[in-house]
Design goal:
Elements: E1 37-42, H1 47-63, E2 67-70, H2 81-91, E3 97-100, H3 105-108, H4 118-122, H5 133-138, E4 140-141, E5 144-145, E6 148-151, E7 156-160, H6 161-167, H7 178-188, E8 198-201, H8 206-209, H9 213-218, E9 222-224, E10 231-232, H10 236-249, E11 253-256, H11 262-269, E12 275-278, H12 283-288, E13 293-296, E14 307-309, E15 312-316, H13 321-335, H14 337-347, H15 354-357, H16 360-368, H17 372-377, E16 382-384, H18 391-406, H19 412-427
Parallel strand pairs: 1-2, 1-3, 8-11, 14-16
Antiparallel strand pairs: 3-15, 4-5, 6-15, 7-12, 7-13, 9-10
Length: 431
């Protein structure tokens, strides 16, 4: 596969220099005695993702003899990468590339050490316009491309067909409503058998929050209002939280107290949860557990399909011109359809571009994986969270509101009021 990829000797000429004109450092920075440039990558992956990215790193190193990507550093998983990188930037000793969540990009991009990739990706080997719209939007901050896309997903509902059959409930179909979802969850809940209709992460982190945005967007709301000074979901957020409150009152929702939704997915794969909102990354584990499953788009309030997407990123940091050029070469290589397809298939993600989606290996994989096409087709109606510096504060406030409603500790209106107070205050801070 990679034998057809042209090898580039970055240090042999200046062809790559224009897209890194803003980088500091001398041309010799990071260059070993043998002329090899070493690039430090903090990928933050575990298990399957770690094996996939390290196999690609090994392939890149074999096909790019003047660059060596070292993927052994970082020492943290992706959930803790923002804090790790922030501390590293403060100390002055930071990686060349780090895996940064899309929701954290605006915060990290405020650092002058983040390399502007606008020219590199607009003129890269993977045409910019072939990237899905959520990909392009998710790596763009104030009109500039501040990172390379690393991984793409979308949200849909995976359901256990066996539990539906046992309960005599019809399988859900595209175009269903949130009222139908909550009614179905109630009908499929069996406390005596420890069976829940659905689940929701209950730690208040981004995994808790991002599942609510499609509901808010579907109702006509937005994360930030047009004036930029207030949240854009003061009313719509209450309506969405009322749906969660209904699930809580019915005792049909399993609220997972641990990060990452690990227990929620374990309950689903053990055959004790009928439906779970998730992304394509979970399908390999669901298949491995032998669950008789299928996938359906998210319910709607309006009848218009909408989901959430957005890439996590490879963010490049300036450690001198030679290392920056080499780092950019690596992330552009990772975006190319051949590598992207390998990464997507191994890591359980979606193609970054239409070119990847058209590759025969991806098409075979999609045909062989039940429901994967639902996640891919959902990209046509996907929206992304705004790449806004105040987003982490908004997310934290909304996460606490969601958990308080799921646990029955607050009303939707009261929880959203407190969320709005904290979020609006964050939006007023100059950035």
């Amino acid at each position: 596969m990679t034998s057809s990829i042209a090898r580039r000797r970055l240090l042999a000429g200046a062809a790559a220099a224009p897209f890194l004109a803003a980088c500091g450092g001398g041309a010799s920075d990071g260059v070993g005695a043998d002329g090899t440039v070493t690039v430090e990558l903090w990928h933050g992956q575990s298990d399957t993702g770690r094996k996939a990215v390290e196999a690609l790193v090994a392939e890149f190193n074999r096909t790019h003899p003047r660059i060596r990507v070292d993927s052994a550093g970082g020492g943290v998983l992706s959930d803790a990468m923002l804090q790790k990188v922030t501390a590293a930037l403060a100390s002055g000793s930071y990686p060349d590339i780090a895996y940064i969540f899309g929701s954290d990009l605006a915060s990290i991009a405020r650092s002058p050490r983040v390399v502007d990739l606008t020219s590199a990706l607009h003129a890269g080997p993977t045409p910019w316009r072939s990237l899905w719209a959520p990909v392009r939007e998710g790596v763009t901050v104030n009109g500039r491309v501040r990172a390379a896309p690393a991984l793409l997903d979308s949200l849909a509902v995976v359901y256990n067909r066996k539990l539906f059959r046992q309960a005599g409930v019809d399988f859900p179909r595209a175009g269903w409503t949130w009222d139908e979802f909550t009614d179905t969850a109630r009908r499929l809940t069996e406390p005596g058998r420890g069976v829940f209709g659905t689940g929701w992460p209950g730690t208040g982190d981004e995994d808790t929050v991002w599942r609510l945005w499609p509901m808010i967007w579907d109702l006509g709301g937005d994360v930030v209002a047009a004036d930029g000074k207030h949240i854009g979901f003061a009313d719509q957020g209450v309506r969405a939280l009322e749906t969660l409150a209904g699930l809580s009152r019915d005792k049909s929702v399993y609220v997972d107290p641990k990060p990452g939704g690990e227990q929620m997915y374990q309950v689903f794969m053990a055959g004790r949860m009928a439906m779970v909102g998730t992304g394509p990354w979970q399908l390999p584990d669901i298949i491995g557990a032998g669950v008789d499953y299928d996938v359906v788009p998210l319910p709607t309030y309006s009848g218009r399909p909408v989901t959430i997407s957005g890439p996590d990123t490879w963010t490049v940091f300036d450690n001198g011109s030679a290392r920056s050029r080499a780092a950019v070469e690596f992330v552009r290589w990772m975006m190319r359809p051949a590598q992207d397809a390998r990464w997507d298939i191994s890591a359980g993600s979606l193609p970054l571009s239409s070119a990847t989606a058209a590759r025969p290996e991806w098409r075979r994989h999609s045909q062989q994986t039940r429901g994967l096409d639902v996640f891919t087709e959902a990209l046509g109606s996907a929206r992304v969270r705004p790449v806004h510096a105040a987003y982490p504060q908004i997310s934290q406030a909304l996460g606490e509101a969601i958990v308080s409603v799921l646990l029955g500790k607050d009303s939707p209106a009261g929880a959203l009021r407190r969320c709005a107070e904290r979020s609006d205050a964050a939006l007023l801070i100059p950035r």
